Each structure stands twice: as C-alpha cells, then as structure tokens.
Amino acid sequence: MTATFVLVHGPFLGGWGFRRIASELERAGHTVFTPTLTGIGERSHLLGPDVGLSTHIEDITNVLVYEDLRDVILVGQTYGGMVITGVADRVPERITRLVYVNGHVPTSGRNAMGAFGGGTAGKLDDMSDNEGPRLLPPFPFEAMGIHDAADQAWVEPRLSPHPMKCLEEPIVLTRGEPRMPRAYVLGTAREDLIAFFKADPIAHFVEKARAEGFEFHEVAAGLFPMVSHPKELAAVLERIASPAR
Fold it and tell me: Does residue 43 surpass a pLDDT of 70?
C-alpha cells in the first residue's frame, strides 16, 4: 500500500535536504512532498523580522490545502516537529499520522527554547547574532551527525541560518494534543551533539513522546539522518506507513 508523505525539515537545510529520502520513497511508489519553509534554503530571500513558527505552520498548512492532500503522513525533523504539531491543530482531517524525527514535541503555550535542557537554550542564544532578524548559524557537521566528506560537500554550500524567532515563538494549540497516531524516530548516535551542547538538546522531547505513548523507532544516526542515513530512515518511514505492522 502506498502513502502520501509530507517531509518538513528542521534548521539549516530546506526541502532539498530530503532529496535522497524522497527518491527512496518514490521508488517504492509513495507520493512525497518536500516543501521549504519561508526564509530558509531557496526561500531565504523571503526572510524578514516577522518570519517565525506561525509562518512555517502556515507554509505547510497551505501545502496540504492547495495540493488538496488527504491521509497524509506528516513528518517533522527536529524543529519541524513544532511545525507539524501546529499543522495538525489546523487541519487534522487531512493527516493520518505524525512522525517526529529527532523532533520537538511541543506543549501548547511554550516555545522550543523553553523546552531545551541543560543550558542548550543559552548556548543557542549565544550563537545567534543580534542584528536584524536574529539568526542561528549552522551547527558544526559533527554535532549535526554528518561525518562523511561527500555528505558534507553536498550540504555545506546550501546551508542556511535559522531564524531565532521560530524557536522563541510559543505554539498555541486550540484543539489540545494531536489525536492522530504519532511516532518518534530517534537517532541513537548523538554523542557529538551532546558533547557540543554538554547536554542532550532533545531529551525533554523524547521523554514527552515516551510518556504520551508514541510508537518508537530507532536509527543509528545523528540529528540529520535524512542526509547521513537516508536509506535507513526511508525504511523506517515505510514501516511506520505499513498497515501490516
């Protein structure tokens, strides 16, 4: 059985970062959309002081509405988890399942920065600039879990800074926690990320997902498995989509 996937990226990349996974899923007969969020990647020219989480929720909501997508498996990587949760609050009737890939699992009324643990928020704040729209520069490749030289060469010229407003803007869920099935894909090779921050930035989100009964899967990758382990992540997404699980 085939499925419709909408893959939502986190910081620094863009829809292009899912190119390898999209190819794997499309080869198996699935339909895949990989939109880029406003102000990032090929849409970086649209960055302005008002671009934040609500902008990105609107971006992906509009993809579902204007493409008239139904029974969507909506996938969010890292910060993309904030976005897909907001979209599920807007158009739940179009979504069959939410999948968080090392994703932020938000609580209504809180922002992503407030959920980071172990001083991570302070480090991100220190890393960002203070001129114009505050921007977070890309993490070192090791912290992103991208160790292969060819992968680094592919990614480096396309990286974009991430608007800090996206992490600072609280999410507001009018319907409460999403009611559709939710899955979490956890990258287990995050040692360099944890060393960089001296804490695990996504630990709170993982704990929340476990407490709320998410279906859990693991992949032996870091924070950006769509770049470093696309075949493995695509296989996990196919398992999540399979009705025979």
Answer: yes
Rounded CA gap, 115 and 205, in Å? 8
Which amino acid type is present at position 156?
E
pLDDT tens digits, one per residue of 119-170: 898 999 899 976 667 899 999 999 999 999 999 999 999 999 999 999 999 9
Token readout for 89 is: 């609050």
Q: What share of the chain is helix, strand, coil (3-state, %, to 5)?
A: 45, 15, 40
Contacts of 226 (CB under 8 A, 6+ apart): 7, 9, 13, 17, 18, 20, 21, 77, 101, 233
Amino acid at 113: M
Question: Hunting for tokens 């209504």 — which residue is that?
Answer: 108
Residue 183: closest CA among 239, 116, 227: 239
CA distance 242 to 240: 6
Q: Dump the DSSP string for 167-223.
A: HHSPP--SS-S--S-EEEEEES--HHHHHHHTS-TTHHHHHHHHHTT-EEEEES--S
Residue 244 has pLDDT above 60, yes or no: no
